[in-house]
User: Which sequence fits this backbone?
């Protein structure tokens, strides 16, 4: 009875070892480590757990077969960032920054248009303050108190501007009848000239054009009435803007330095020294621009007004005032005011007088552009003509005529501020020993801060 269990035990042990060998071969073929198969058979009586563990540790590690020689070599894949071409990466970096900048500008323009009346009134107050502030400084130098000097400059400035506006309206109303007669005579002369011209215009065609104009006016009566009602709203808004500008000017003249110091407190402390130095330079630029523009506009108005007066053009004085006002819109204002004077000369005095008026306007504007502006305004407020055109167009789109007036001085001030901050950062970097590229901008080098300002 004892041999049968021993025989069965030996057969079971052999089957177990055969299974282990098959498992080792399979694991070696698949490249997986071999794990011993747990069996329910009892361990030999002469073995110990420590010897079994050492035998498992000393088992050979499976060897992974090497790839065959004919297998192609597989290159390692680069990082995704390195796989993108350098030019595309630069374009993407610049693109999202431009998108953020465009979004910020759009939000700023939307905010300005939402409170356009307040913004335009404050900007007009800044321009008027820049014009009147030198007078306040001179009166204070003479010993007048700050309140009295501010009141005198404020009242004198707005009285003069009010008298100019009243004079223009009075001249237009006074000469309206005469101008209407002159215009009718000019239209008759123009009609006669068209009939005798080589353009082969017949009288029937002229009558047809006049009939179409009358019909257009008759059919659009409702639109004209609506425009008139809207004009009343515009007048109310205009008067509100004038009151806001007057109050803002008064407080800027009296308490401008304290307002500026309060504004500096809102600037981060790290950037405060640079902004504090850029502010006075920006104000000097704005003052020089307004003063120079007033002088140039006054010269234009006087000489063009004298020219068209001697040419017997009606309403020469109101036209001269319009030329003075439109001169505050660079480039575009001179063209509009000059064209208005030429058109009035054409419809009232004929083609020859209109040509002579055109010669006078062009001569004065050429002298202004090449002699007066460089001499009076100087290099501090000089802006490239392309920047002038683009800024006037953008200002007109955002704020109408008021936006076109304040666009160029804002660009001139921004140019001065950027140049100063660039020079200031360059100087600070040199003081701290930080290598920086050389500042090549003439405006930046010219507006570099002086050592005494620190």
Assistant:
């Amino acid at each position: 009875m004892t041999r049968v269990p021993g025989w069965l035990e030996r057969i079971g042990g052999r089957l177990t070892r055969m299974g282990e060998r098959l498992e080792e071969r399979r694991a070696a073929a698949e490249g997986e480590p071999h794990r011993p198969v747990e069996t329910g058979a009892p361990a030999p009586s002469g073995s110990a757990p420590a010897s079994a563990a050492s035998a498992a540790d000393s088992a050979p590690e499976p060897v992974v077969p090497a790839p065959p020689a004919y297998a192609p070599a597989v290159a390692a894949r680069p990082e995704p960032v390195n796989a993108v071409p350098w030019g595309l990466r630069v374009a993407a970096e610049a693109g999202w920054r431009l998108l953020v900048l465009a979004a910020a500008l759009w939000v700023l323009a939307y905010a300005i248009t939402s409170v356009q009346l307040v913004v335009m009134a404050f900007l007009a107050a800044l321009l008027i303050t820049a014009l009147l502030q030198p007078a306040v400084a001179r009166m204070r130098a003479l010993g007048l108190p700050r309140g009295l000097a501010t009141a005198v400059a404020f009242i004198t400035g707005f009285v003069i501007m009010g008298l100019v506006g009243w004079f223009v309206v009075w001249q237009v109303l006074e000469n309206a009848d005469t101008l209407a007669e002159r215009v009718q005579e000019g239209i008759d002369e123009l009609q006669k000239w068209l009939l005798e011209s080589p353009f082969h215009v017949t009288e029937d065609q002229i009558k047809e054009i006049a009939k179409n104009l009358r019909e257009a006016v008759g059919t659009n009566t409702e639109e004209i009435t609506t425009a008139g009602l809207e004009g009343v709203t515009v007048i109310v808004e205009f008067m509100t803007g004038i009151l806001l500008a007057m109050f803002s000017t008064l407080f800027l003249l009296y308490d401008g330095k304290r307002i500026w110091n309060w504004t500096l407190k809102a600037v981060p402390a790290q950037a405060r020294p640079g902004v504090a130095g850029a502010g006075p330079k920006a104000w000097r630029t704005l003052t020089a621009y307004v003063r120079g523009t007033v002088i140039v506009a006054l010269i234009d108005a006087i000489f063009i007004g004298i020219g068209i007066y001697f040419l017997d053009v009606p309403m020469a004085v109101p036209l001269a005032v319009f030329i003075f006002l439109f001169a505050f819109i660079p480039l575009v204002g001179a063209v509009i005011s000059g064209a208005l004077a030429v058109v009035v000369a054409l419809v009232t005095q004929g083609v020859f007088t209109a040509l002579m008026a055109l010669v006078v306007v062009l001569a004065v504007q050429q002298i202004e552009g090449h002699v007066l502006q460089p001499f009076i305004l100087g290099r501090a407020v000089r802006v490239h003509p392309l920047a002038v055109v683009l800024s006037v167009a953008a200002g007109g789109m955002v704020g109408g005529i008021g936006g076109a007036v304040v666009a160029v001085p804002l660009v001139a001030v921004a140019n001065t501020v950027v140049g100063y901050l660039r020079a200031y950062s360059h100087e600070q970097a040199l003081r701290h020993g930080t290598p920086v590229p050389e500042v090549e901008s003439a405006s930046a080098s010219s507006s570099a801060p002086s050592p005494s300002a620190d």
